[in-house]
Design goal:
20 strands; single chain; about 475 residues; about 20% strand; globular; about 40% helix; binds nicotinamide-adenine-dinucleotide; alpha/beta; seven-stranded mixed β-sheet; Aldehyde Dehydrogenase, Chain A, domain 2; Aldehyde Dehydrogenase, Chain A, domain 1; six-stranded mixed β-sheet; 2 domains
Length: about 475
């Protein structure tokens, strides 16, 4: 039996020019069984072998960077980032390869029991056999690898299902995997939509999901029923606080960059700004001045700052948030609703003032190049409003100096807080752990050492080195 093909829209033309062919249930089950069969040898081969194989994959990705970048450019409608991504992924693989042996060594605990000196302990690592990765459309290749790479190094087999919205990059990436047969035995991409995602969750031993809160919530319930771990990286509504003492041109640049990078289609985009009312007008003047200089990445894919909406429905959501805010009294300072150009949906950098928390644009994830700015009486009000959110992915504080920013940042309910800039999360991938707050995630940090160690079950080997205690130890009157 064949499965139903899914149409794929081109974000620059609006036309359907590609289809996704999901696997049938039988094909998926057979694929997962094959990965499971190969995984024990992969795990048993040791970290040195896995590092050597993964380094060859990094080389293959770089050698095929143009083909991967071209495919992702068609998927996302943006050129520069698409062509940088293969190099970012290759660098990330090599970084994990450098780090993995030391991480394993340091995580291995061995010694003598603190309560019984004749008992010693050692740690065995037992990777989950098959990890499922389900990823979104906003950074197709990069987000499909963030969890898969450390999981492979940990010794898991991995099946990846990227978004059906942006599937074209899979073919050239699969070709790089095929160049490394040892890896091809334990890593497979499959294309498909929600049905394929649901089927994968029924097959795997652990799930890494990156995507929206509603999908994450549904998948967490399936994982709970199956009693398997779910590592969820979900949506955000990042706040930025700008204090009265901040350097306003710098603050405006940081906020704007954080808000409109990839046309706002970033989970940790700056989506709301709280500024001290004493500098509000000057900040808005600076922000709108800088925003008006940004150009659409149209008609030439190699020029401009703001690419198209990858998903047409996302443009509708952003327009809806904007219309809701304006109907409730917000003031449009620059930019505006989305424009349709040759079938692609675009939006100019958009600044809104006079906003408050009755508006969708301050509470729901917008995922577009919009900067709504609310004036606050003082830092306490700014902190209260920043924390008034169902999300808690990351946040930012721009103040007069680093110490002032850090004092405010410590009060924010978010997993990563950028100080004196925005969106610094991407720079700490292997360095430091972070925990998402509220609905922005579940299951522990994908960053830092835990990014790899979470895929390993710890088995404690406990050895009695002296005689077994005699039965007197069981006497109630002993
Ligand atoms: P989505 O939840 O609609 O889809 C994500 C993936 O899940 C896709 O592969 C999709 O096919 C699959 N899927 C959808 N419904 C499913 C179901 N019922 N069962 C199984 N699989 C299903 O999200 P999206 O629109 O692709 O991505 C945008 C969202 O991702 C935003 O909320 C954004 O903030 C979030 N995101 C989070 C991070 C992070 O690291 N926290 C990074 C990037 C994007």
């Amino acid at each position: 039996m064949t499965s139903t093909q899914l149409p794929v829209r081109n974000p620059r033309t609006g036309r359907v020019d590609h289809v996704v062919q999901p696997p049938t249930a039988a094909e998926l089950a057979e694929l997962c069984a094959g990965l499971r069969r190969a995984q024990p040898a992969w795990a048993a081969a040791g970290i040195g072998h896995r590092v050597a194989v993964m380094r060859r994959w990094a080389d293959a990705i770089e050698a095929n960077a143009k083909a991967i970048g071209d495919a992702e450019m068609t998927d996302t409608g943006r050129s520069r980032v698409s062509h940088e991504v293969p190099y970012m992924v290759a660098a990330s693989i090599r970084g994990w390869c450098d780090a993995a042996p030391g991480l394993l060594e340091r995580a291995r605990l061995h010694g003598v029991s603190s309560v019984s000196p004749t008992v010693s302990y050692d740690t065995e690592f037992d990777p989950y056999s098959l990890l499922g990765v389900i990823s979104p459309w906003n950074h197709p290749f990069l987000l499909s690898t963030l969890d898969a790479v450390p999981a492979l190094l940990a010794g898991c087999a991995v099946i990846i299902k990227p978004s059906e919205v942006t599937p074209r990059f899979v073919e050239p990436v699969a070709a790089t995997i095929a160049e490394v047969p040892e890896l091809a035995a334990v890593l497979r991409y499959v294309t498909g939509g929600p049905d394929t995602g649901r089927a994968i969750v029924e097959e795997v031993d652990a799930l890494c999901f990156t995507g929206s809160v509603p999908t994450g919530r549904a998948l967490a319930q399936t994982c709970a029923r199956r009693f398997i771990p779910a590592f969820l990286e979900l949506g955000g509504k990042d706040a930025a606080i700008v204090t009265a003492s901040a350097d306003l041109p710098q603050a405006a640049a940081a906020v704007l960059k954080g808000a409109v990078h990839n046309a706002g289609q970033v989970c940790f985009a700056t989506e709301r700004v709280y500024v001290d009312r004493s500098v509000h007008d000057a900040f808005i003047e600076e922000l709108t001045g800088q925003a008006r200089l940004l150009e659409l990445n149209y008609p030439d894919v190699d020029r401009g700052h703001l690419g198209p909406f990858i998903l047409a429905r996302q443009a509708d959501i952003v327009d809806d948030h904007l219309a809701d805010a304006l109907a409730r009294g917000a003031v449009l300072q620059c930019g505006g609703p989305s424009e349709t150009l040759d079938g692609g949906r675009y939006m100019r950098a958009t600044v809104l003032t006079g906003v408050d928390h009755s508006m969708k644009i301050m509470c729901e994830e917008t995922f577009g190049p919009v900067v709504p700015v609310q004036a606050c009486h003082d830092v306490d009000e700014a902190v209260r409003l920043a924390n008034d959110s169902e999300y808690g992915l990351s946040a930012a504080v721009i103040a007069g100096d680093e110490a002032e920013a850090a004092a405010i940042g410590r009060r924010l309910n978010a997993g990563a807080v950028s100080l004196m800039d925005t969106s610094l999360t991407i720079t700490i991938m292997r360095d430091v752990e972070k925990t998402s707050y509220n609905s922005s995630g579940l299951g522990g940090s994908r960053m830092g050492p835990n990014g790899m160690l979470r895929f390993l079950r710890r088995k404690a080997l406990l050895t009695r080195s002296g005689p077994v205690p005699d039965m007197d130890s069981l006497r109630e009157d002993a």
